[in-house]
Specification:
The chain has about 200 residues and is mainly alpha-helical. Helices cover about 15% and strands about 5% of the residues. It has a domain of about 80 residues.
């Protein structure tokens, strides 16, 4: 688990170390999508962290041509072109925990967020390469929805981009890009992953 010493410090959050997974686990094939978080908010009156705090959530500011954090952006008002097939955005870790607790109270006792080691193992499909698609950054196009040429003219031109175009300037519908070796989609890129 982690990153080798050869990776830049900015991308290597944890140095490579051995982790032993001692029990089997299930993980979803796709990121959370659709109206479920909105239904949870409506049914319980829960206020997401983006609604509770003055700084709000993340969204696209068309005038500034960039992604920003602003009080205008909440669970349902992030200004990204999305449908129910896209991953949920503007859900904090604390928000996700509350949704999971509600599911557990309703009898879904086997529902939880994966531990970091479980997520990394599943993301890499048991491998050890830097990226879900291998060691070469060029393999990310088609496998990972990230900042690439699809952002041309949408966000400021000074942003680093991958060479290529995955066809999704912001989030892509879940499962649209190639899965990893175990058939899991969007393990990197698209939307934040909470563990």
């Amino acid at each position: 688990m982690g990153s080798p010493r050869t990776e830049r410090a900015a991308t290597a959050r944890r140095r490579k170390h051995v982790v032993e997974l001692t029990r089997p686990f299930y993980i979803g094939v796709h990121e959370a999508r659709g109206p479920v978080p909105g239904q949870f908010v409506a049914a319980t009156g829960y206020k997401t962290e983006a609604e509770q705090h003055y700084f709000g959530g993340h969204g696209y500011d068309q005038a500034a041509k960039e992604m920003v954090t602003d009080a205008r952006f909440k669970l349902a008002t992030h200004r990204l072109p999305q449908s129910d097939s896209h991953p949920v955005v503007n859900v904090s870790w604390n928000d996700a925990v509350q949704v999971l607790r509600m599911a557990q109270r309703q009898g879904q006792t086997n529902v939880s967020a994966p531990h970091g080691a479980e997520w990394e193992y599943a993301c890499r499909a048991g491998g050890t390469t830097r990226f879900v698609c291998g060691a070469d950054v060029r393999g990310l196009i088609g496998s990972v929805n990230g900042a690439d040429e699809s952002l041309q003219g949408i966000v400021a031109d000074n942003m680093d981009r991958l060479v290529g175009n995955d066809g999704a300037a912001f989030t892509a519908p879940v499962g649209r890009l190639k899965p990893n070796g175990w058939g899991l989609h969007d393990m990197s890129g698209n939307a934040e992953e909470w563990v």
